[in-house]
Amino acid sequence: MRSPRNIFSFIFHSIVALCISVTYSYFFERFLSRCKGKKIFLNVFLLPFVNNIVSCIIYGFSMITLRKNRKFTLSSEELKHAFLSGFYESSSTLFSHYSLQYISYPLKIIFSSAKILFAIPASIIITTFQSSGNSKKSFKKYEIIISFVMFIGLVVVLLPIGSAPGLLENFSIKGASLIFVSINLGCFYDQHQMLLLRSLQSTPVALFWNSLFALCCTSILIITLGDIKQVISTLTNLQELVPIIIISCHHTLSQFFLASLKRKYGIFWKNVVASLRRCISLIISIVLFGHSVTIQQACGITIVLTCVFLAGNAETKNRNREK
Fold first, then answer.
1. Closest CA to 27 of 274, 204, 289, 208
2. Alpha carbons 246 and 128: distance in angstroms, whole number
3. Domain residue limits, the chain
4. 67: buried, middle or exposed (CB in 10 Å: 19+, 13-18, 0-12)?
5. Which tens digit of pLDDT belongs to each residue from 130-168?
6. Taking the model in full, what pTM does it have?
7. Which residues contact 46 (CB under 8 A, 6 or more apart)?
8. Angle at the Cα of 308 (from 302 to 309), degrees rounded to 5?
9. pLDDT, tens digit, for every residue of 73-102?
């Protein structure tokens, strides 16, 4: 990454990924504030459905225009990873969006930031299936230390001290449980998406197949759990459809640039951009959408986000040593 061209490409991917991710968070919370309490269905079912349609269109067009690594058929192994990544993504999104009925959006960002702590069950399962024999998951020293410090940061955020609730307003254990399930499902999604990216050697192609299977899973959920009449009425109402399409475009582009950043420059720089996005999104949410935060909670958020950065840095150094 030392040549001027690679440096420019890295800066371009980082800035664009950060800007699009932040604007996505803004439009998403703006959408939530408008449909809060009356149109839960739009957030939980219809928004992921339109997200996947837009993703299939954009990634499909990108795949057609590629000069190399175009792939319209998949091997059995690639098909398995594409299906599982789509299934886990749609399931994780469903739980994540539904949790917003019970916790605030800033608190969801904080929980998502503490992924290394909440995703311990998923990491044990993934490592067990990947490893040969009966070898068990062994946690590295830095993982234990960072997870412990991150746990303290979350306790500081969630501990009700004083009369001001801050981010704990309307907080419920049910919302935290839904986020816990969503994060663990997201870990399985990340695992299969990374394997698909490595196999196909093309970000648009991998994301197209992932979005296609996610669309199939979301469609089945809408048919079985949703209201078809409400889907049709929303899709034919431009006033409701346009904001959803705008959010979907930002989500698709954000996903593309973050995946490209991870594939080309490693998980560490992707985590750096994601951490900056969370910081800016939290500030925007608190300032523009009226969420209050206490000094105690601000200290806890700082601890959590610092641990996210340190975990990514330590993981990168550990992988470099293994190579």
1. 289
2. 40
3. 4-102+172-265
4. exposed
5. 554 444 445 567 677 877 888 888 888 887 766 566 777
6. 0.78
7. 222, 226, 230, 231, 234, 244
8. 90
9. 778 888 888 899 999 988 898 888 888 888
